[in-house]
Write a structure and sequence with these properties.
Blueprint: E1 3-8, H1 12-22, E2 27-33, H2 37-47, E3 51-53, H3 56-59, E4 67-70, H4 77-86, E5 90-94, H5 101-113, E6 118-121, H6 128-139, E7 145-153, H7 165-168, H8 172-175, H9 178-187, E8 193-200, E9 218-225, E10 230-236, E11 244-251, E12 254-259, E13 268-270, E14 286-288, H10 294-297, H11 300-313, H12 323-342, E15 346-347
Parallel strand pairs: 1-2, 1-4, 2-3, 4-5, 5-6, 7-10
Antiparallel strand pairs: 7-11, 8-9, 8-15, 9-10, 11-12, 13-14
Helix pairs in contact: 1-11, 4-5, 5-12, 9-12
């Protein structure tokens, strides 16, 4: 049985999802929709997709689609997800799940009412190195987790939609911190977050490096859990040198450190430079550490394969990768914005 997929969007995230389906033996992409006809045709040609549309509602009328990946700017996630669910098709939604908790609740309810799955595409849950980290933690090898620190950072989003808060919902806190927040909540599965404190740059002229961004370009957030443990989340647009995704976990009997973006086994020195090293890297001259297969290493292949497997085997997705998992991560983000505005911690 092959799962027939469709994609809404034809940009950066859509490329990743199409590659994921292409590398999944049990799935194939039947159609893609995006408003710009020239752009969506080029995307369809690139991935050998026969059917393309400029209106996703027209695409949703097809009866040969099992699952739809939503790879659009954040502010569109809600409306498209509800439309997909009402069309009786399963949903894969990119992060963040939505730009408000009310929207997230509507999306979850629409999936439940229409008896379809709402999968939350948080790739950190599927990155091979971080999967292994979670296995080691859950085995008890480092004892009780006392504290974790996780970061996603780079020099600034390449998306024009990231410039405006009305399109993305904020800045790097909602756009990037959502990754380590989701992973941290999964590490603490079964333990509720109790308090959030955050500081962010002010947006626009009050940013550290990016005055053109209406949202913040720097954020740091602390989560206090009910058991007394803490997590520190760092997300920013001021880090040069390419995507910087790291996790550190400190336990009563050990420590784990992981680097999923710049921990490549490859080392290249080049005076001329070459085509690609790692996401968001500004240059490829001098010493660089190119990733052998970035989409695999960041978990995107395993993510799509897992969602497809869930449909075929009729099983629940792993913790943190359903609509509730997306909402839980978004709840921490929203508490972070509230904390930054108030200048004090927010109780959950």
């Amino acid at each position: 049985m092959k799962i027939r997929a469709a994609i809404v969007g034809s940009g950066f995230a859509a490329d990743i999802h199409a590659d994921g389906y292409e590398n999944c033996i049990d799935a194939e992409v039947a159609a893609v929709a995006s408003p710009n006809k020239e752009h969506v045709k080029a995307f369809a040609d690139k991935f050998g997709i026969t059917n393309y549309y400029t209106d996703y509602n027209e695409m949703l009328k097809r009866d040969d689609i099992d699952i739809v990946s939503i790879c659009t700017p954040n502010y569109l996630h809600h409306d498209i997800s509800v439309a997909v669910a009402e069309a009786g098709k399963n949903v894969v939604c990119e992060k963040p799940l939505a730009v408000t908790l009310e929207e997230a609740d509507n999306m979850i309810n629409a999936a439940e009412q229409n008896n379809v799955k709402l999968f939350y595409a948080e790739n950190w849950h599927f990155a091979p190195a971080l999967v292994r980290v979670a296995e080691i933690v859950k085995s008890g090898a480092i004892g009780d987790v006392l504290y974790f620190k996780a970061k996603e950072a780079h020099g600034g989003s390449h998306s024009s939609y990231a410039l405006k808060k009305k399109y993305c919902g904020g800045g790097c806190l909602i756009h990037m911190a959502i990754h380590p927040i989701g992973y941290g909540l999964a590490l603490k599965e079964g333990v509720k977050p109790a308090r959030v404190y955050a500081e962010i740059s002010g947006g626009g002229e009050n940013n550290i490096l990016h005055p053109r961004f209406e949202g913040e370009d720097f954020s740091v957030l602390i989560i206090d859990f009910e058991d007394g443990t803490r997590g520190v989340i760092d997300a920013n647009y001021i880090t040069k040198g390419g995507l910087d995704d790291t996790v550190e976990i400190y336990g009563s009997k050990g420590t784990i450190k992981a680097d999923i973006s710049q921990g490549s086994p490859l080392k290249v020195f080049s005076l001329e430079g070459y085509d690609y090293a790692v996401e968001k890297a500004e240059m490829t001259t001098g010493w660089t550490f190119p990733t052998p297969n970035e989409n695999w290493g960041l978990g995107y292949h395993n993510e799509i394969a897992h969602f497809v497997e869930c449909l075929i085997e009729k099983k629940r997705p792993r913790f943190g990768t359903d609509g509730k998992g997306g909402r839980d991560a978004l709840r921490i983000v929203m508490a972070g914005y509230q904390s930054a505005e108030m200048g004090e911690a927010v109780m959950l």
